[in-house]
């Protein structure tokens, strides 16, 4: 592992449905590809894109890490939504939850040290313990291992239930107050993989609670991955 690896500690989080997600560490940035070919977390290297879901899982494993799970992604989103600094008004629930790099002011995924000219595209989110994580929303979608309605491969295996944590955790409706877009109950993406966050050109669709899908064999330039340990 590169000495530049940067991880934030996410505190234990209890979701609104009562599920407690234990504390874990997550890359402050999307994974990059190190000189040794292994996944690394860097503030200055471009994110590793053009990698499909299965390859992202293997890249995390090869580096001794794990692909972020759905419950972990929800824990991060729920946690940052409780922090006033992450709201445009400076007050939880007022204005919008910040939505990151999303206005098509860039045309490719950016390294962690890129600073947008527009304050409305700010990229850093503050966790409730004071630690920071970049691009919870915007810049890139991230592949997510679905441990809510997924199978053993982490692929979506059934329609979203009304009470699924995937769609019921966000404090406000889809496309309101910076939540980003998410599907309604009953949507069936079986066989697909979850992606979260939104990319640099997703506009108001981007958000910490943004939820979409991707074919697991696709390797697009707007989907990367984030590792945990």
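-> sequence recovered:
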């Amino acid at each position: 592992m590169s000495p530049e690896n940067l991880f934030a500690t996410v505190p234990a989080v209890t979701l609104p449905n009562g599920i407690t997600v234990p504390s874990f560490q997550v890359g402050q940035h999307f994974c990059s590809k190190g000189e040794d070919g292994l996944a690394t977390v860097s503030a200055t290297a471009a994110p590793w894109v053009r990698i499909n879901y299965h390859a992202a899982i293997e890249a995390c494993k090869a580096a001794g890490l794990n692909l972020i799970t759905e419950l972990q992604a929800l824990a991060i989103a729920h946690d940052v939504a409780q922090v006033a600094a992450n709201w445009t008004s400076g007050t939880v629930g007022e204005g919008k939850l910040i939505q990151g790099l999303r206005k098509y002011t860039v045309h490719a995924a950016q390294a962690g040290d890129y600073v947008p000219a527009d304050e409305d595209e700010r990229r850093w989110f503050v966790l409730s313990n004071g630690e920071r994580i970049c691009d919870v929303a915007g810049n890139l979608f991230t592949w997510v291992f679905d441990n809510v309605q997924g199978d053993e491969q982490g692929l979506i295996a059934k329609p979203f239930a009304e009470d699924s944590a995937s769609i019921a955790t966000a404090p406000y409706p889809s496309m309101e107050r910076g939540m980003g877009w998410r599907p309604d109950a009953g949507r069936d993406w079986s066989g697909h993989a979850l992606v979260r966050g939104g990319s640099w050109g997703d506009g108001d669709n981007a958000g910490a609670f943004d939820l979409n899908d991707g074919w697991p064999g696709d390797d697009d330039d707007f989907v990367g991955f984030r590792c945990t340990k």
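The mean pLDDT is 97.
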